UniProtKB/TrEMBL annotation:
Gene: trmD
Domain tRNA methyltransferase TRMD/TRM10-type, chain residue ranges per copy: 1-227
Protein name: tRNA (guanine-N(1)-)-methyltransferase
SUPFAM superfamilies reported in the protein's UniProt record: alpha/beta knot
Family as reported in the entry's similarity comment: Belongs to the RNA methyltransferase TrmD family.
Subunit note: Homodimer.
Organism this protein belongs to: Micromonospora gifhornensis
Source domain of life: Bacteria
Function: Specifically methylates guanosine-37 in various tRNAs.
Keyword Methyltransferase listed: yes
């Protein structure tokens, strides 16, 4: 997968050299380009923002540097990337969207700052490529950079070969519309607290049932919205009894 990121703070992306994302870059699974938006400015002050039309507080990112950046990174003669613009006004980022993005050959992230990017940049880009504004949640960050780090981490771990144990993907929270059951490791007793007996029983049927019940119970308590959204066909008879 190819990923390009445009930002006025390219230094934010230094952590992408680390850990499993760094390894995915080193082995070619992920080809990453981080670009400074100001390299597409032409004035001495390298200006990227201006006051909003219609008034109001804050500044808006001017369209010209963004237009030039997107022209350079998504040239008309090549296959169009998918443009992602982090914004608190975007569609919610979910595990389902992470899977969708992991299947794309080329993602292009545009990191806005201040009150956002002039809307015409996105409207013009949408004539040439799919554009998705994405929100991490119902809160406001300074800009899109941290959101890109989060989205990329969720996407890159789904790429083939990035996780040593692909089973981790099928067992984890959100894999089946439920939160994951609690997990334990050795020692069996720690500070007077025991690991649930069933997990030490070696009885794989009972363990699977316990984990399923714990996941249902935890999801119902913490995320009743997820439980309500669960397709009833995903439930078995014993889930209903629980
Ligand atoms: N930029 C500012 N706030 C954001 C949020 N909640 N999600 C994604 N991008 C953002």
């Amino acid at each position: 997968m190819r990923v390009d990121i445009v930002s006025i703070f390219p230094e934010y992306f230094a952590p992408l050299d680390l850990s499993l994302i760094g390894k995915a870059r080193a082995n070619g699974t992920l080809q990453l380009g981080v670009h400074d938006l100001r390299s597409w400015t032409h004035d001495v002050h390298r200006t990227v923002d201006d006051t909003p039309y219609g008034g109001g507080p804050g500044m808006v990112m001017r369209p010209e540097p963004w237009g030039a950046a997107l022209d350079a990174l998504a040239p008309a003669e090549s296959a169009a990337p998918r443009l992602l613009v982090p914004s608190p006004a975007g569609v919610p980022f979910t595990q389902a969207l992470a899977y969708e993005l992991a299947a794309e050959p080329h993602l292009l992230f545009a990191c806005g700052r201040y009150e956002g990017i002039d809307q015409r940049v996105l409207d013009h880009a949408a004539t040439r490529m799919p554009v998705t504004e994405v929100s991490l949640g119902d809160y406001v960050l300074f800009g899109g950079e941290v959101a890109v780090l989060v989205i990329l981490e969720a996407v890159v771990r789904l790429l083939p070969g990035v996780l040593g144990n692909a089973g981790s993907l099928t067992e984890e929270s959100h894999a089946h519309g439920l939160l994951e059951a609690p997990m334990y490791t050795k020692p069996a007793t720690w500070r007077g607290l025991d690991v649930p007996e069933v997990l030490r029983s070696g009885d794989h049927g009972r363990i699977a049932r316990w984990r399923r019940d714990a996941a249902l119970e935890r999801t119902g308590r913490r995320r009743p919205d997820m439980l309500a959204a669960l397709d009833p066909r995903e439930l078995d008879k014993r889930d209903v009894a629980a």
